[in-house]
Design brief:
Elements (H helix, E strand, L loop, with lengths): L3 E3 L5 E3 L3 E6 L2 E7 L14 H24 L1 H7 L2 E5 L3 E3 L10 E10 L6 E2 L4 H13 L9 E4 L5 E5 L8
Parallel strand pairs: 1-6
Antiparallel strand pairs: 2-3, 3-4, 4-7, 5-7, 8-9, 9-10
Helix pairs in contact: 1-2
Amino acid sequence: MKILLREQANNFDKGCFGQVFFLDGCAIKVFTRPPENTEYDLEKIDVHGQTIRRRHIFNSEVLAYTTALEVEELRTYVSHFRGERIISKVFDIDNNDISDRFLLDCAYAMDHLQGQAIKCGCNTEKSDPIAFLFRKHGINAMNDFSFFLDDSGKVAKIIDFAVQEYD
């Protein structure tokens, strides 16, 4: 199945290592390529090394979601995960092909969660027990996770976590 993504007003969100597109009730996170060095850069980055790092982060996130789906006490927090996807093309808002900015084989889908994502540091009373529970099952990169609350104010869903960090 070919997946074409297009930037449109209010249908995407940019993160540190990826971009999330909202399409047909799904949120599809596609990892971006690191920017190429230019002659004006004061410090050159190792683009190849950073690309490998982003692939490791992607694999670590997918492994964390699939691991959590197998653990009964975690499954409810990640039941929105829909698995890996391969993206065919990405177009910007002006219909230009910007696929070269992405690692098209480093993408996954999940349900588009409604509500506001709360960063873990904002509410340690709710986030600390959840982070401990995930770490207990080998999902150790919980420094940047966010959560969504249900109508009663309890943590319902978790996003942005991985098995391990890649500094």
